[in-house]
Fold:
Amino acid sequence: MKALVLFSGGLDSLLAVKLMQEAGVEVEAVHFLQPFLPPEIEANHIKRLQRLMAQTGAPLRFVRLDEDYLRMLEAPKHGYGRAFNPCLDCHIYFLRKAGEMLEETGASFVVTGEVVGQRPKSQYKGAFPIIDREAGLEGLIVRPLSARLLPPTIPEEKGWISLDHCPSIQGRQRKIQMELAKKYGLQEYQSPAGGCLLTNKEYGRKVEDLLRHNGRLDLDAMRLLSAGRHFRLSPEFKAIIGKNHNENRRLFFHFFQNRRNPELYVVKTKNVPGPLALGCGRPSAADLENLAQLTARYSDLAPGKKGDVRILCGGPKHRRLELPVTGTKDPSLPDRFRIN
Structure:
């Protein structure tokens, strides 16, 4: 008998793998990669998850989500949490995808590390039947960490598995999980919560701004949301200003890859150290002036001193501009445009 385990990277899903292995079930784990993770962050994320799963000996496959996932994020049936996190719809989406993989992987049912009462939006008894039904997996989702608190599943009723050795964990306490981690010799694991970018309120505000002004979410724009300071200069134009060398490189690389796009602008102070800024959209003359002044605001241009900002425009002709700026450290300038 084989099970497909949804692996989030947290301790609970690691324990779900071990509990099923103790039940004599062959296990394969799957992790769904959010499509807006920057490449370098995704690479480190994958390495960490592989290291964690190696403790169980179970194979781990990665499935990269695509535009279809973004369409779900734009209009989740069950709404958002405190940030831009449609946790219930997200979980249903992952389980539906896992269900589509059962035949391919040779698995007979799906396993999760969910705990009754741990998450107010998606992990309570009343939510589980909704999740199972809308995922098309009624009776085929096993939650071994809370097994004794939930109705028996098809794998239990048919005698495929026994969950007599499984705990009855509920709520946010971690004592039992820590004891199980020790029992199974798990030396490395991640604490719960906070792993998904969509639960971050600051990131969520940026996603909301993107959706409100662009009308839809796209992968390239989403990947940029985790870099730099974000400013909305007008409904048609936004700016991203790097906070360090790595972010400046990311912004320039994005511009270089998409340099034929006439709605991209790369900005830098002339003869003065400072950050790189990326403009996105269709700016007015006032928008470009504000972008230039914002770029200078975060540079080493001394307050009151005159300087210039260079702007390279995307598109076939790569138009170049220079705009005069005055050094300032006035916090009201970025506060006027900051996305919050």
About this structure: The mean pLDDT is 92. Residues 2-183 form a domain with the Rossmann fold fold (CATH 3.40.50.620). The first strand starts at residue 2 and ends at 6. The CA atoms of residues 310 and 322 lie 5 Å apart.
